[in-house]
Amino acid sequence: MEAVPRNPVETELTVTSPEQMRELGLKLAKLLRAGDLVMLSGELGAGKTTLTRGLGEGLGVRGAVTSPTFVIARVHPPLGDGPPLVHVDAYRLGGGLDEMEDLDLDVSLPESVIVVEWGEGKVEELTEDRLQVRIHRAVGDTTDEVRHVTLTPVGERWAAADLGVLTA
C-alpha cells in the first residue's frame, strides 16, 4: 500500500490486491471503537465488503462477513471484549434515515461499530462523527486490481485520529 497526501484532512491510499484491501481493514479496525460510523462508497466490485471483512477480523467478531445486500444488515457479535460490528448495505434503500429507521442504527450506534455500504445521503444524520471511505477502481472491461482509497474523517472524534498508521 502506498499513501499519497491529498490535503490535511484526507488520506489517500493505493491498494493493489484484495488481500491488501483486507489488510487495510485489519489496520483500520485498530482505530475503531464503539460508537463509530464508517461509510463506504465505491462502484460495484470496488472492495467494500472485502474491506469490511478485514474490519470484522480486526475487531474479532463472530461470523463470516459477507455482503448483506439481500438482508440489508447483519450484526456480528464480538468474540471478546470489543464492540459488535453492524454491517449494512443501503444500496436498495432509496430514502434517507427515515427508511433506515427500522434497522435501529441510532440505538445500535453507541455500543457498536456500524459500517454502511452505499450510505451517502442516507445515514449522515446518525452522528456528526464518521469516517467516509471512498474506493475508486477502473470500470469497464478490465482485470485491473488497483484501487484508490480516500479516507475522509468528519467530526471531532476523527479530528485527532492518526490515519497515517494505515500506511505502515
Total count of helical runs of at least 4 residues: 5
Q: Regions with pLDDT < 50 over 5+ consecutive residues?
A: none
Widest sheet, order of strands: 1-2-8-7-3-6-5-4
How large, in whole angstroms, is the Cα Rg? 15 Å
How far is the N terminus from the C terminus? 8 Å
Strand content: 25-35%
Give the helix/strand class. alpha/beta
| Proportion of helical residues | 10-25%
Describe the structure.
There is one protein chain. The protein is α/β, with parallel strands linked by helices and 168 residues long. The protein is 21% helix and 27% strand. It contains 5 helices and 8 strands. It has an 8-stranded mixed sheet. Strand 1 and strand 2 (11-15) form a beta hairpin. The longest helix has 12 residues, at 18-29.
List keywords for this structure.
168 residues, globular, 27% strand, 5 helices, 8 strands, eight-stranded mixed β-sheet, alpha/beta
